């Protein structure tokens, strides 16, 4: 039986669009379904200043195909040299909606990130004062910490001390992958939220490693064991306003993924809304999908909910998603959930 679900148009609160030929190829994949997205600033070189963010926003809008509507919500990449006054001016003009903190070396293109958190204290204090959210890649980088423990250790050693030292700082824990992340968000009332990706609702670490290594399931933070995936599903499908969608759709070309040292990132922009409808239906929570994709994020970012809608349709035949997107830089593999999906999006 065919049936459909109409929701307020979704937004993506954590997205990598890259630049140049890659930007041109992947932007329509997001703009087809999403009204807005928080644009990650981890270009090479990173988007550090307000002027760089304005120029990047213009390149994104120039790459948008005619007839497509999409609003990029820009962010600045926090470095130890970031000027609090530049951040405040970029916020006051409406240009940026958040600042992104990457611990130096934690993930793709994070070399310019923060090593000494005391050096960014004046920026964080300014952000608390003006209500500008801090988005965090929440993993420690210490060589002696096991990669599967890096998110939990970050919460204890870095995040909780930062929040205690900077009252009023509004924080989004990006792409949480653990029950520890879910519990930390839930144990705090105000000014703390988390994004959850589509792929972390679907895969656990077995999907990456059992039966041969699957480079297209490798991302950071790396998927954890099944109990953590279940905790993420419960949080996402609960309707709790503190959890919302950030796909972390992160395109890398196939040669860069299928390599002896493969890049981290899953490309999910193309089929995210179909996969989420499947996941929410499986958890008996289709009625909560709109909160996760379209309502909780705007509420946290103090923006209006999109006024138009997206209709998802359940069909008898599984949807045939493209397996790859062609770009002038090379092919990018679309995330394969590993099961048939019957929800289609326009
Ligand atoms: N998530 C990833 O595995 N990769 C992201 C970076 C990030 O969000 O950490 C990327 O830029 O490729
Ligand atoms: Zn990240
Ligand atoms: Zn990301």
Automatic annotation (TrEMBL):
Question: Which reaction(s) are listed as its catalytic activity?
Answer: (S)-dihydroorotate + H2O = N-carbamoyl-L-aspartate + H(+)
| HAMAP family xrefs | PyrC_classII
Q: Which residues form the Amidohydrolase-related domain?
A: 12-305
List, from the UniProt record, the residues annotated as the active site of this protein. 248
Keyword Lyase included in the entry's annotation:
no
Q: Under what name is this protein listed?
A: Dihydroorotase
The EC number on file is 3.5.2.3
Residues binding substrate: 16-18, 42, 137, 220, 252, 264
Q: What does this protein do?
A: Catalyzes the reversible cyclization of carbamoyl aspartate to dihydroorotate.
Molecular-function annotations in GO: dihydroorotase activity; zinc ion binding
Which BP terms from GO are recorded? 'de novo' pyrimidine nucleobase biosynthetic process; 'de novo' UMP biosynthetic process
List the cofactors. Answer: Zn(2+)
> What's the encoding gene here?
pyrC
InterPro entries recorded: Amidohydro-rel, DHOdimr, Dihydroorotase_CS, Metal_Hydrolase
